[in-house]
Design goal:
Protein name: ATP-grasp domain-containing protein
Largest sheet: 6 strands, antiparallel
Number of strands: 17
Number of helices: 13
Distance between the termini: 25 Å
Shape: globular
Keywords: ATP-binding, Ligase, Nucleotide-binding
Radius of gyration: 20 Å
Mean pLDDT: 92
CATH architecture of the largest domain: 2-Layer Sandwich
Order of helices and strands: HEHEHEHHEHHEEEHEEEEEEEHHEEHHEH
GO molecular function, one term: metal ion binding
Family: Belongs to the D-alanine--D-alanine ligase family.
Strand content: 15-25%
InterPro entries: ATP-grasp, Dala_Dala_lig_C
CATH topology of the largest domain: D-amino Acid Aminotransferase, Chain A, domain 1
Length: about 375
């Protein structure tokens, strides 16, 4: 996308204004604040690069998250277009088939609105982590042996928990970050953990425990970037994670990711072919999902003892990765895993945001595709 095209944009950030609907009795928990913190980070970063960012407050306060983004409600979205001339929405929210963007599709398409984000119709499917992993393994060549083994657990399965192998991971089907993720090592922990998660949702995931090195890989969609045109999906440098708590990476609101994660050096990457193989697999995942914005895939080696060359297994596809970043006062440690990866290719947070914005797509093409 040319600088002239960027200059013609009137961009508004959308944060999550209300919980998403249940899907088959399965709930996706709402993040406190509805991603208004990262929406403010993005909007502020874009503004520092001269992008015309439209905000609900005429003079947004750098310390007030909600000054920088609109809630993703039909009234707020319509108001942003009709009263403020917004022609690009950055959907920094949880999308689904009943989302306001889908409800207002005819109006927004008529106004030729573009969007940064995934297709709302696809996201609802891909938010089901058990279904997504199974679909990718069964339907896509090159991914058959890439993912951690898992299965659904519902209330009717409680009586057979003793049959399951331990240690294992239990987690929500439609999870958010590390919410509800727990490594269970004995039958009592498994029973208590399953009972607790089933109070939140009708089904949960039981997954093999991968005890080795944890990494995460961000994949960008094809397009024009400040580092050149990319004809296909392309992975940013691998980020390695450490200092997990009970073998689970803590939520970044508790422990900033810059304190427990870093991008691999080129020398570390070159010394272990498994990293490059995992990047190619993650690019295949993004292609299969037809991602139109960055996605992030979490991975681990199966064994703690596996060093260079030990197989890296994919276990969690994040279609809307955390997008916080530094820049606003008081946000000095609030970088994200995606931003850490981008720094490794020389992009600071504002450049990452501008490059992501440049991939905005017509809403019609997002909703019409097969």
């Amino acid at each position: 996308m040319t600088s002239r095209a960027l200059q013609s944009m009137r961009v508004a950030l959308l944060h999550q204004g209300a919980p998403v609907p249940h899907v088959g009795g399965v709930i996706k928990p709402m993040k406190p604040g509805g991603y208004s913190d990262s929406s403010a980070d993005i909007a502020y970063a874009l503004k520092t690069r001269g992008i015309n960012v439209i905000t609900p407050a005429s003079h947004p306060d750098v310390r007030k998250d909600l000054d920088w983004s609109f809630p993703d409600t039909p009234s707020a979205i319509r108001q942003a277009v009709t009263e403020h001339g917004v022609n690009v929405f950055w959907a920094n929210t949880i999308l689904h088939s009943k989302h306001a963007i889908v409800e207002l599709a005819d109006f927004l398409i008529e106004k030729r609105v573009k969007m940064v984000g995934q297709s709302p119709l696809d996201t609802e499917k891909y938010d089901d982590k058990e279904w997504l992993n199974r679909w990718l393994v069964q339907s896509h060549e090159g991914l058959q042996r890439c993912f951690a083994e898992n299965q659904l657990i519902t209330a009717k399965d409680v009586d057979r928990l003793d049959e399951l192998n331990l240690p294992a991971v239990i987690k929500p089907v439609r999870g958010r970050g590390s919410h509800g993720v727990k490594v269970v090592r004995d039958k009592e922990q498994l029973k208590r953990g399953v009972e607790a998660l089933l109070k939140e949702s009708d089904a949960i995931i039981y997954e093999e425990f991968l005890e080795g090195e944890e990494t995460t890989i961000t994949v960008m969609p094809p397009g024009e970037y400040t580092n050149g045109r990319k004809e296909g999906y392309w992975a940013l440098p691998v980020v390695t994670r450490f200092d997990q708590v009970d073998d689970v990476a803590p939520w970044n609101g508790t422990v900033p990711v810059m304190d427990n994660s870093r991008a691999l050096t080129p020398e570390e990457h070159a010394a272990d072919p498994a990293y490059g193989i995992a990047q190619r697999q993650c690019e295949l995942v993004a292609e299969a999902c037809q991602a139109t914005a960055p996605i992030r895939i979490d991975c681990r080696r199966r064994r703690r003892s596996e060093g260079n060359g030990g197989e890296i297994i994919l276990f969690d596809v994040n279609m809307k990765p955390n997008a916080t970043g530094t820049g606003r006062p008081g946000r000095e440690k609030q970088t994200s895993l995606v931003a850490l990866a981008a720094e490794a290719i020389g992009w600071d947070y504002p450049e990452l945001c501008v490059n992501t914005l440049a991939q905005a797509v017509d809403l019609k093409s997002l909703l019409d595709r097969e």
